[in-house]
Amino acid sequence: MTTRRSNYHNSIPQQMPIRKGQASITTYSSRLKTGVTALLVPQGPLISTGGTLPRAAKRNYAETDDDDLEDRRPEDEGAPLKSRMAIMTNHIYHTEEQLEKAAQQPEILIPIRINLDMGTYRLSDFFLWNLSEQLITPEQFSQIMCQDLDIPLQTYAPQISQAIKTQIEEYAPVATIDLPTGIQNVIVNLSLHLAKHLYEDKFEWDLASAEFTPERFARTIVEDMGLSGEFYPAIAHAIYEVLIRLKKEACEGHLPTEVENDAAYNADAGWRVDQEGLGDEWAPSLEELTQEEIERREVERERNIRRLRRETAKFGDSADRDYNSFLSSKRRRKTMF
């Protein structure tokens, strides 16, 4: 028994010691600039590091070995990667009391979208911002973002922070309203394009329910359809944008009191009756777009977002408050009756 136990422990490979601290060299920002994600998209042709074949030459793909495909790395195709010294992120560390106080605040999430033209690259980011956030400011967030992406801090950090504060001012009047309890079903028409793909979906959503979140819905869609990880925050963010618009319409009384569910035999719920399309418009779809379609949809999306922000900013008496007064003043949550 003792011999076996000794041999068993001797057969376990020794673990490498875990080093503490941050790596000194990183290629993170360089890898992002190769265009493999939708965060930083090159606006010009990438410089290829590999040789090109003459125009008249032909490649025999039948001679391609599986090992060659496995050894091929994304960085071998496109712009060359550059290493740089890793910069320690200037985080602000808070006390336990500050963290506990922030955790007790209600979470009110609003969609934030950042679009910057940086010459050779275009920055397109989207995320959710908590109106009750007390631990980080838009200025601190923008500085960390510029450091992580290795983009000029003095040039783009003020633009990013100002874009965040502007959207906070525009969405806050609607986002802080409490809807009455009870089922308030609305129809969500979702259409978003990420990189070269267009995702579309149509479904019902209960505005008054907080049990099922856009994040949970987006994760389920990504898992069911086998989408890439970038679609998870993109779908959740798009749902928040649609819901805040529908919430504004509900507050103004422009939404119908009931949504026809087209259920069979006049049932309260169930399969929809659609003899022609068989309910295909209520199913998610994914298609690949051409460059012309991407540019056209980008212009339309920017126009719709600006229109939504203008309409949202006009709603409520608190729309004209600036960002500093919004944070310093005690938020009054309105209740509809």
UniProtKB/TrEMBL annotation:
Keywords from the named record: Nucleus, Transcription, Transcription regulation
GO molecular function, one term: nucleosome binding
Annotated region (Disordered), positions in chain: 51-79
Domain of life, source organism: Eukaryota
GO cellular component, one term: nuclear chromosome
Subcellular location: Nucleus
An individual GO BP term: double-strand break repair
Family: Belongs to the SNF5 family.
Protein's UniProt name: Chromatin structure remodeling complex protein SFH1
Taxonomic source organism: Lipomyces starkeyi NRRL Y-11557
